[in-house]
Design a protein that fits this description.
The chain is built from 23 helices and no strands. With 658 residues, the protein is mainly alpha-helical. The chain is rod-shaped, with a radius of gyration of 46 Å.
Length: 658
């Protein structure tokens, strides 16, 4: 309420004029000979002086009458206000007539104060006490209105739990990924599940307070503002709505976690919380916050910028709670298993950022909007840092124990399934890795980088250049192949080295043939890997079967000095062949080729070479070989070869020809 100096300036100025006018009139009247102009001034001055004296008398009469009337009005107002104070019933629970009458009484009290203040009474004036009493009555009424306002907001709150919103807990799906070695089979594919919420389920305004009480809340707010009690009104509103939003986050199972809490959390639990955060972020911004702003706009509809101020003040704590979790995730450590989840967080925050900018605009909301943009930037930097760590992890994955039977290494499964999952984030990765693409800082070394030919064949952007994601994926694959070459050296048997590389390169090629990765690596990359694993298959056959096939050649079985066949040498040659075959059977039946088609192709290819040579050798020397020397028939051996690469060691049972 504005202060003013004691006394009425208009009255003081009027009295000064009267004194001056009387002085001038006396001076002019004492002159004996007045000019025409002086007579006119004296006449006009007399008229004005008379008018001023009349007005002063009238003002004094009005003041006396108004004070009496105002005091009566104030007594009536006070009686009504105190009467409602004596009644513990909430006014707006009684009837609309009671509520309207109370508001009218408060408005009348405001007008009384306004009238008294317009008179600018001196504190020494006995009538100044009337102003104090009027303010006390208004204070009592404002306290009551604030109580009514709070009561209505609380009692008429509606639960913010739309039926279409549901979140299936994913803790049972989470995989404890402490290292790249955690995965030994294709279950890794299920661990990278992208979360999504349909846009249709996100965009809806719901009534947080029963619509029928909004007009009453608006009237109370307007009255409190008109009476200069805006601070009490907005404080009551923002406190209640802030608590309501806190409860909503609690209902959505969002906990208040510090950065240290997040850093210490086990991955299984953290993974679940990230997935929930991704789901909640969209729902909270597009339903909860949008509805919250709508409520503020309805209640403070006629109060201009107050609408946004109250919304921002009520909601900033809850939105910051969500942003704090995202910021904690962006800080690190940048573990590869977190990349997909951080991409999910980046994607959802980027998706709702326009909504947040619309909600938090102008001076009041700019700080929240800026915080969201900053957290998004931090998440993006975290993605780039994690990509670097992922490639380092691929290249440096320790090689200690070889995979049993030369099967597919867990690292191969992990990396290929990882890349397949990352294809869902192509646009984001292209955007974030764009800076890294220049000069290729993410790639580890020239040895692990894709060849120029591969670069030219990879996915290209609109300018004809390869996309950043395609370049990075090629680098991942090159790092993986280099690591697999090192891991193959763990096998002492050269044949098994080739089986291991054949299995893993074939697996890579098969994964890339899928629609998601094929567009990135393209057919030329696949053809090269097909040739590569086929070369390893041929190298396996040379390493495993060259010696056995050499035993089925003619050299070294003739009698010395003649071309005739030595039966003893022939017998020894057959015995050596069977022993070598049995050893290979025992060892290589334990080796593993998981892909059925690849296994069958290698079995058939081996069988064609070995069985054909065996048939020819036995047929050519049938006259020199007795039946008892033939330990295995060609058909038996052909069947035995089909037992290879099944992953379970077997021993041959001797059979005799019939």
């Amino acid at each position: 309420m504005g202060d003013c100096k004691p006394g009425n300036p208009e009255v003081e100025v009027g009295e000064d004029l009267i004194v001056a006018a009387k002085s001038i009139a006396r001076a002019l009247g004492s002159k004996k000979n007045l000019t025409h102009g002086e007579r006119k001034i004296l006449a006009d001055l007399g008229t004005k002086l008379s008018s001023l004296m009349t007005n002063r008398s009238t003002l004094n009469e009005i003041k006396v009458e108004d004070f009496g009337d105002i005091e009566d009005r104030l007594n009536s107002i006070q009686d009504k206000v105190m009467g409602w104070e004596a009644d513990q019933t909430m006014i707006w629970d009684s009837s609309s007539n009671e509520a309207n009458e109370y508001l009218n009484t408060v408005e009348e009290a405001r007008q009384v104060i306004e009238s008294l203040e317009s008179l600018c009474l001196s504190k020494d004036d006995e009538k100044y006490e009337l102003l104090n009493r009027a303010n006390d009555v208004l204070q009592t009424a404002m306290t009551r209105l604030e109580d009514e306002f709070r009561y209505m907001l609380v009692q008429n709150r509606q639960p913010c739990a739309p039926e279409h919103m549901s979140f299936r807990s994913c803790e049972e799906d989470a995989v404890d990924v402490n290292s790249l070695m955690s995965f030994g089979d294709d279950s890794v594919e299920d661990s990278f599940q992208r979360d999504s919420v349909s846009r249709a389920s996100e965009d809806s305004i719901i009534d947080l307070v029963r619509p029928e009480v909004i007009p009453d809340l608006r009237c109370i707010a307007n009255m409190m503002f008109n009476c200069n009690y805006e601070r009490e009104c907005t404080q009551a509103y923002t406190t209640l709505r802030r608590d309501a939003l806190d409860e909503s986050l609690s209902y959505l199972e969002i906990q208040k976690l510090s950065i240290e809490d997040v850093r210490k959390m086990e991955w299984v639990s953290l993974n679940s919380k990230i997935r929930r955060w991704v789901w909640v972020m969209k729902i909270f911004v597009r339903i909860y916050l949008a509805s919250e702003k709508w409520l503020s706009e309805q209640i403070f509809e006629e109060l201009g910028p107050v609408r946004l101020d109250c919304f921002v003040e009520a909601s900033k704590a809850s939105i910051r709670q969500l942003l704090n979790f995202a910021e904690a995730m962006s800080i690190g450590p940048h573990q590869p298993e977190k990349l997909v989840r951080i991409l999910d967080m980046y994607e959802v925050l980027a998706d709702v950022l326009p909504d947040i900018d619309d909600l938090y605009f102008g001076e009041a909301g700019s700080s929240i909007s800026m915080e969201c943009h900053d957290v998004l930037l931090r998440l993006g930097e975290s993605v780039k840092a994690t990509v670097i760590e992922f490639e380092k992890a691929i290249a440096s994955n320790p090689s200690t124990n070889p995979v049993s039977g030369g099967g597919i290494h867990p690292l191969t499964r992990y990396v290929m399934n990882y890349m397949r999952t990352l294809t869902d984030y192509g646009q984001i990765l292209d955007l974030l890795l764009k800076d890294c693409d220049e000069g290729d800082p993410v790639s580890l070394s020239p040895d692990t980088s894709p060849t120029k030919e591969e670069e030219n064949k990879s996915t290209h952007d609109s300018s004809g250049r390869k996309s950043p994601m395609a370049r990075q994926f090629l680098s991942f694959a090159s790092s993986l192949e280099s690591n697999l070459d090192e891991k193959s050296k763990l096998y002492r048997d050269a044949s098994l080295q080739h089986v291991f590389l054949m299995n893993n390169i074939h697996y890579m090629a098969q994964k890339v043939k899928g629609a998601e990765l094929r567009l990135i690596f393209e057919d030329d990359w696949i053809r090269k890997r097909n040739r590569k694993f086929q070369q390893h298959a041929m190298s396996y056959q040379r390493a495993s079967w060259s010696y056995i096939l050499s035993l089925l050649k003619e050299e070294g079985i003739q009698n010395p000095g003649s071309n005739s066949i030595s039966k003893s040498l022939l017998k020894e040659r057959l015995r050596s062949f069977y022993l070598a075959f049995e050893e290979i059977y025992k060892v290589q039946s334990a080796w593993l080729i998981p892909d059925p088609q690849l296994r069958e192709d290698l079995q058939i290819s081996t069988s064609l070479n070995v069985i054909q040579a065996y048939r020819t050798f036995v047929g050519r020397h049938s006259n020199d070989i007795s039946d008892k020397l033939i330990k295995y028939s060609a058909d038996d051996m052909e069947n035995y070869l089909m037992d290879l690469f099944e992953g379970s060691p077997k021993l041959l049972q001797s059979s005799s020809r019939r």
